[in-house]
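Final report, Chapter 2: Outcomes

The project's central promise was a pipeline that accepts a single protein chain and returns its three-dimensional structure in a standardized token representation, suitable for archiving and comparison. That pipeline is now operational. To close this chapter, we reproduce one record exactly as it appears in the project archive, with the input sequence first and the structure output second.
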Amino acid sequence: MRDEATSRRSDKGRVGVAIVVLVVLGLVGAIAGSCENETSATKEEATRPSETTRKVVTVTQEEYGDDWPLTVPEAQLELIDGFYAVVHARGRTYAMNGTARTVMSERGWNDIYEIWREGEYGRVSIAPLLDRTLALRDW
């Protein structure tokens, strides 16, 4: 009998420990979830361009000659927050690099393909404009 009573107490103790562990895990999960929401908001704020980190340069078809890759004669290249390479032309903003293209719909930017010129063997390389834009980085 004594062993059976001891065994029951031991089982009740294990159940109690299991409940405490589950409660603690639930609290940790809730705290982690609230931190994740704060992190998401911080990430969202970090992806917004700030006026102080914007760099712009004007480029022209005349300057690049036959290597000009756009269908407009002049454009402004801008590097936003050190990552988003965009082109401003015709009153619109066009996402040029992959980083900018991933957020273009959120930001209301257009696709660079709309003004990217076709050459004899496909699209004219946009690399010189992209290199020039990325050179605007401070680091």
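Archive annotation: The mean pLDDT is 78.
This record, like all others produced under the grant, will remain available to the consortium after the project formally closes.
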